[in-house]
Amino acid sequence: MINVTVIAVGKLKESYLRDGCNEYIKRLGAFARVNIIEVNEERCSDNPTDSEIKAVIKKEGERIAAKIPKSACVIPLCIEGREYSSPDFSMLMEGISLKSSHICFVIGGSFGLDDAVKQMGRYKLSFGKMTLPHQLARMVLLEQVYRAFSISNNSKYHK
Questions:
Q1: What predicted TM-score, i.e. pTM, was given to this entire model?
Q2: Which of 147, 152, 156 has its CA nearest to residue 24?
Q3: Would you place residue 134 in the very low, low, confident or very high pLDDT band (cuts 50, 70, 90)?
Q4: Which end of the chain is more exposed for a tag (fewer CB within 10 A), N or C?
Q5: 33-64: per-residue pLDDT in tens?
Q6: DSSP output for the chain
Q7: Using one digit for the tens of pLDDT, what is the confidence trace for 17-33?
Q8: Tell me, what's the pLDDT at 131?
Q9: Phi, psi (deg, nearest 5) at residue 72
């Protein structure tokens, strides 16, 4: 059974997002061992300067990097990543699982991901050019990972 880790900046604040994520984590239990790691958001002023934003991204990146499992295939979520159809994403996950027993997805904070973390990724994933709140992106990611496993296992979930 493959290990799937999601490292995300910040905690889920809304109960509907927690409920949705928990539902997909439960469903994923048939296919993978799932681990969610939340790293603290770095605080900054209400109207941060560019240098403050860079410092926030760097500090969050350091926290993320410290939590990435050593043998995992790292997939950061970022706007410059590749967009996949659900079947193509399923094929990607299948291919990774042939080479690695651990996939680690990384979701940055509200200012994005540190370039050093992005460079750790063998693949980069994007949900499109639209910006999603990073908390919602976590639920979308878990749903798509579940869908990918469902496709690979010929379940009726993906139509």
A1: 0.94
A2: 147
A3: confident
A4: C
A5: 999 999 999 998 889 999 999 999 999 999 99
A6: -EEEEEEEES---SHHHHHHHHHHHHHHTTTEEEEEEEEPPPP--SS--HHHHHHHHHHHHHHHHHHS-TT-EEEEEEEEEE---HHHHHHHHHHHHHH-SEEEEEE-BTTB--HHHHHH-SS-E-S-SS---HHHHHHHHHHHHHHHHHHHTT-SS--
A7: 999 999 999 999 999 99
A8: 84
A9: -80, 150
Q: How would you classify residue 128: left for phi > 0, otherwise alpha for psi between -120 and 50, otherwise beta?
A: left
Sign of the CA dihedral with 18 first, then 22, 28, and 34 last:
positive
Contact 32, 1 (CB under 8 A): yes
- Cα–Cα distance between 139 and 135 in angstroms, integer? 7
* Residue length of the chain: 159
Question: Which tokens hold the place of 100?
Answer: 């690695």
**Token pair 């990073």 in the structure block, residue:** 134
